[in-house]
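Comment on both lines for my students:
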Amino acid sequence: MFWTRNLVTFVATLLGVAVVAFLLGYLLRQYLEETRRKALGVQREKVLAEAEAKAREIVLSARDEALKIRAEAEQEIARRKQELERAEERLQKRQEALEHRNEQLESRERRLNQRQSELDKRKNELDKMEAKRQAELERVSGMTKEEAKALLLKVVEEESRKEVAAVIRQVEAEAQEEANRKAQKIISLAIQRMASEQVSELTVSAVPLPSDEMKGRIIGRGGR
């Protein structure tokens, strides 16, 4: 009977230990599962945080890269614009130089045409003179010595008269031009002197001239 009670007690004890072990195992599994879930949650949050940080880093890096690319593009545009402006300036200067050169060539062409016209005119005059001389020679060939001499003197006299008249006209023109320059200089000096003395009388003062000849030299139209 004693052994029976001991066996019952032992079995009960084993059952109690088994129940306690089961409960402890269950609680331990629950704890471990909860711990694992928490660990997974923490890991997930950590991963999410790292992902968000990485995403922010990528966004910031992309923004910086975009700003850098934009700045480089703006610099390139500014450089191209400056190059274009310099090219346009060079083209403008070249065009102006070509226009100036064209004007010079046109002016030279006009002078050459005028010179050619003068040469043609002179050649025509020389041809006429040569024809006239040839006719005179043909006519002189039938004259006596005295008649030829008289004709030669007449021709020389006419040519000398023409040359003298041309020289006189040239001298008169040069004298007239020199007189005009001197008269303009005298008037300019007189006006400056009068202006320095009395400005208010500049427009109403008169400069007396000694004679009509001086007036004609100043005006250039015979004093009128």
Observations:
- The first helix runs from residue 2 to 140.
- Residues 153-199+211-224 form one domain.
